[in-house]
L-lactate dehydrogenase
Amino acid sequence: MPDSKRPNKAIKVVIVGAGSVGVTTAYALLLDGLASDIVLIDIDRNRALGEVMDLSHAAHLHKARVRVGDYEDCENAAAVIITAGVNQKPGQTRLDLVKTNYALFRDVVPRVAHHAPDTIIVVATNPVDVLTHAAYKLSGFPRERVIGSGTAMDTTRFRHELGKHFGVNPRNVHAVIVGEHGDSQLAVWSLATISGMRLRDYCTAAGIEYDEKALEACATRTKEAAYEIIRRKGKTNYGVASVLVSVLQPIVTDSDAIMTVSRVGSYAGVEDVALSMPCKLNRHGAYQDVPLLLSEEEREALRRSAQSIKDVITSLEEHLKPAEEKAEATEKPEQA
Ligand SMILES: NC(=O)c1ccc[n+]([C@@H]2O[C@H](COP(=O)([O-])OP(=O)(O)OC[C@H]3O[C@@H](n4cnc5c(N)ncnc54)[C@H](O)[C@@H]3O)[C@@H](O)[C@H]2O)c1
């Protein structure tokens, strides 16, 4: 990496979960040079050790060390990325997946918070919005220090799709996916631009057709990309690893980048939920919303997305209530 991008002090990053996403993230981080100390924590210590041996044999070429650690090693970490968790199995409901991964978070997050009370938690485990909300509650951290990778991944995919459609480098396409990292996400067409021009104006200027159907197909491919990749190779790992490194970049370099990441807040009238909207990121975390002037239709789609995440959070909280409390609630006579 160029020296200008290289952090000038020792930066420790801990990755909890040395599975496919965790290890690919460690490798991307190693190549990027953002961290000087990369620690992997996994319940399967032997697996983590094998991965670390493989990664660390050439780590000196990248001026970083990679090691297996435990929760004590989270102390003074600039960020702790959580990738531990299971993937959705065929036939499994989303709520079942949430219950399993929530149980894991209940074990992991308090330990991270105990050893690294000032760190920034970055959540990648799915369903990422619900678990970002869970990590916020379980850590007791302020909301800017609990960040879900959210639709940063979908936004990158969307720019890739639009770039391909228009024959433009995705870096020159400004367009975002907001809401849930999942089926209710929405593409913000009203604010998408190329070279400072709304897409319709760009088409007029470039003398090309504004093909609404083809553009909708770009958004559909974005939403379905993970399903398609999983169908073909069984998992997704490279894209998300690059995205996680790009989320760490403004944190480590304190550079106020705007990214669509998930954090807890009130969105389109739905309170206490986590979803992705553009946020400013620096060493304090995702510290500031960058409000979008959404169209009426987009605002309603965002509300639906927020509500669908909130429904899962509510079902999870219901499931977690002690049995007596549940019984009491059902026995209570209705108020006149
Ligand atoms: N946010 C995104 O864009 C995105 C993309 C891809 C995958 N994911 C999610 O990331 C998660 C991990 O996916 P993967 O493909 O790496 O799975 P994986 O099965 O390859 O790895 C999961 C790892 O977690 C470890 N683990 C389980 N319980 C643990 C615990 N209590 N403490 C520490 N480690 C524990 C396992 O031993 C395993 O090594 C899944 O929830 C997946 O859906 C998110």
